[in-house]
Amino acid sequence: MRFRLGCAIALVLTLAVSAASASTCPVLIKQGRDATATMNPNDPNVKNALAKLDRAQALHKEGKHADSMREANEALGLLGKK
Question: What are the structural domain ranges in the chain?
Fold first, then answer.
């Protein structure tokens, strides 16, 4: 009985975290793209950030939300936004 309860709780927590991650990716990617819109596109950090944002978008579409959030956060870091 305890094992089943533990499994059920773990499943609910996993689903909640996945849903939160899925909705966070687009927000982070948008923040990065909005920030780059006002920056010099020739700046190496901006170029690297845009590449990371593109990768984050692709990972999000593949359902790899943790990786997508990592890439988006790294891009924001390059832009000095997080």
Answer: 2-78
pLDDT digits (tens, 9 = 90+) for 18-56: 444 457 889 999 999 999 999 999 999 999 999 999 999
With a CB cutoff of 8 Å and minimum separation 6, the contacts of 3 are none
> Under a CB-based contact definition with an 8 Å cutoff, are residues 17 and 39 in contact?
no
Q: How many CA atoms lie within 13 A of 64 on its CB side?
A: 11
* pLDDT of 81: 86
Q: Which of 19, 21, 23, 50 is nearest to 37 (CA)?
A: 50
